[in-house]
Structures are given as C-alpha cells and as structure tokens.
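In this supplementary section we document a worked example of the pipeline. Step one takes a protein sequence of length 98 as its only input; no multiple sequence alignment statistics are reported here. Step two produces a three-dimensional model, which step three serialises into structure tokens for compact storage. The input and output of this example are shown verbatim.
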Amino acid sequence: MDSATCLCLARRDGYSIRALTIKIHGTAHAEMKAAKLLAKRVRVIEHRFMSIPELREAGDIAGSRELSKKSVPSTFIPMKNAVYYSLAAAFAEEKGAA
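The serialised model returned by step three reads:
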C-alpha cells in the first residue's frame, strides 16, 4: 500500500514515473496483477519487472522455523529493503534520474 500511495502522490505532483516491481518467492499472482493495473491507471512511462525467486521469507527457508519462532517474524527477509533500494537505484541510474 505504501508504494501505491507514493506512486499516486508522485503522479499528482507532476513527476514522470518509472515503476519497478520485484517478484520474490511467494509473491501472489494477484499482487503482480494489481501492480500492472495500478501502473497502467497512473500512466507510468515504463514498468519493469524483476524476479528474484531465491529471495525468501524466513518462514520459507528450510531450517529457519526455529529462528523465526525465537527472534524474527516468519515474513522477515534480511536486508530486503537494501536489496530493493539497490535495484531501484540501478534502474534510476540507467534511466538518468537525478
């Protein structure tokens, strides 16, 4: 929801938008479909999809059940935001974004 809100606010403020959707292990088909629909409705310039099936939540990793029970939620992905920001920064740099 946060990224959808930011997308709409950026469009409202007159920005040209390129969108990046990252599919990881377990991403629902409906979520990907919603991303495509929103990008179309907001009229993004380009919508790129990246797939990283090896990026898994703690609950999906063999042997991590004990870890997720004790210290992190089963949905935890170590450094997920850093991975996403790195991919987004590379996309932006490729496109010459300032």
